[in-house]
Amino acid sequence: MEGTAAGAGGLDAVPALEIDPVLDDRGTRIIVCCGSGGVGKTTTAAALGVRAAERGRRVVVLTIDPARRLAQSMGIDALDNTPRKVDGIKGSDGGELHAMMLDMKRTFDEIVEAHADPARARAILENPFYQSLSAGFAGTQEYMAMEKLGQLRARDEWDLIIVDTPPSRSALDFLDAPKRLGSFLDGKFIKLLMAPAKVGGRAGMKFLNVGMSMMSGTLGKLLGGQFLGDVQTFVAAMDTMFGGFRTRADATYRLLQAPGTAFLVVAAPERDALREAAYFVERLAAEGMPLAGLVLNRVHGSGAAGLSAERARAAAENLEEGRMVDRGPGKTGLRGVPATSSEPSHHATAADSSARPSAARPSAAPEAAPTADVTEEHGTDPDTDQDLARLTAGLLRLHAERMRVLAREQRTRDRFTALHPEVAVTEVAALPGDVHDLAGLRAIGERLSSPRGGS
Fold first, then answer.
1. Tens digit of pLDDT for each residue in 296-351?
2. Which of 194, 328, 335, 408 has a CA 20 to 30 Å removed from the CA of 34?
3. Is 320 left (phi over 0), alpha (psi -120 to 50) or beta?
4. For the whole prediction, is pTM greater than 0.70?
5. What is the C-alpha to C-alpha distance for residues 431 and 45, in angstroms, rounded to an integer?
């Protein structure tokens, strides 16, 4: 980052993350962008998709973010569970970009329709408990993202799949979802409800009528008899599918561990985001999953980093207190000094020294009229000078605040790199506004691919 050279434990101590070699490697089939919420995962995934497509890859971006920003930036009215081609991609060698947004319930419905006969599928889809489970069960969104990833990879229509992981409270939810759903399906409550269906025939009915009567009476009071009946009907219909859920989840999990997958941890230069990133880096290492590196997003920079916060603040105070305002001759020569020089304290001293002799000379009063003429001729009106001084002081204070932000971000980043010196890092400079179109996504892609992210 310009003006903030990294010292020990900083960027110089860790490898640089090079994005283009990852995108160009035909062996890379899946890129997973993960991290805590609100750090720019969706924009990063979309920018990577645009850049990869324009470098000749056939790409599909799977986003979990329900916001409309991604669709709008790609020139698509709306995204849904079906990949949509993005127009305007300047691809080479057949490069294309498709985008889609996960529809959690529709993905669950597709699984049921694909793995159950029509009658049983209809019974499941119309079951009230299933409708609640498919729409909002904890972990369902993350699990369905894994399911959709497995479906896309099996189709082999695209040579690169970029996944924007769900905006979960914890970045680890994406990896935990298959185990959590498996635990639910293997739970004692589900097994108990499955028992009548497994016994079958009259014995099953006898078990249902006798063995379940006591439990149903108790649970019926707590949950409602109709709800419990819906659960039992759902479990009976889903019994043959439960093993398939676990099998597919395990297969997708192994796919994430394969050499053709690359994880990119996305974070902002903030304490909580980088703490979450550190947890994820450690978890990926423990699970043996391939980590490409860390994308440090929305990093602030300054073109005048040589002017420290302390010096900028001191210069602003001098201006506000009038110590830099020369009311005698020579003012014109000093106008604009704070804006063009990185040595405001030096000029403040010069201004003070030139002002004091002028004020002390007895002959200063008779020369007042000629001075006024010169003031009119050269535009050195005192009110204008004061306005300029106030404006310059305000700019200096803004610069001082920016330098404090830079210092805080650098300290936070350096703590991460000191803990994980093996993780490659790239920084992406903060943009003045949101990304609204393909040009903005291209700009992000260029920053991602530049040395240290072009920041």
1. 998 888 778 788 888 888 888 888 887 654 444 444 444 444 444 444 444 443 33
2. 408
3. alpha
4. yes
5. 16
